[in-house]
Design brief:
- This is DUF2721 domain-containing protein.
- InterPro entries: DUF2721.
- It comes from Mesorhizobium newzealandense.
- This protein is mainly alpha-helical.
- The protein is about 75% helix and about 0% strand.
- It is built from four helices and no strands.
Length: about 140
């Protein structure tokens, strides 16, 4: 029969095992916040450029930067979604750790696989962030 009431030693072991996924989840949250902030700035800049009238000959050339801003927004959006998927895997990992410990099942392969998947998603998000950072600075950004 399943032992649904773990003793304090077993509970301490569960919490110790949950430390790494919890820190991972915190890192994902911070990273998503950073990318969302950058995406907000990109979208504000795109809106400002789209608001330039076609007959404003002194500033209409700034609209040529819209395609670069769209690429940045796509990279950031893709990175945010990947990081969130990694966060979901980490959250699922935490649930698996607790549920399987409470009912006494073995979870080593499943937990390891979930952590590898979560890390893969976060790695892809970092790659997208690097792509966005590479194209983020331009001389045209300094102009209004």
């Amino acid at each position: 029969m399943f032992d649904f009431l773990p003793d304090t030693t077993r509970l301490a072991q569960i919490f110790a095992q949950a430390t790494a996924p919890t820190f991972f989840l915190g890192a994902v949250a911070g990273f998503v916040s950073l990318m969302a902030s950058r995406l907000s700035g990109v979208m504000e800049r795109a809106r400002a450029l789209n608001a330039i009238a076609e007959d404003d000959h002194a500033r209409v050339h700034l609209k040529s930067d819209l395609e670069r801003l769209r690429r940045r927004a796509r990279f950031l959006n893709s990175g945010i979604l990947a990081a969130l998927r990694g966060g979901l895997c980490s959250t699922l990992l935490l649930a698996v750790l607790f549920v399987t410990e409470f009912i006494g099942l073995k979870y080593a392969y499943g937990a390891g696989l979930l952590f590898v998947i979560a890390t893969g998603f976060l790695g892809f998000a970092l790659f997208r962030f690097a792509q966005e950072a590479r194209i983020s600075l331009s001389e045209i950004d300094e102009q209004q």
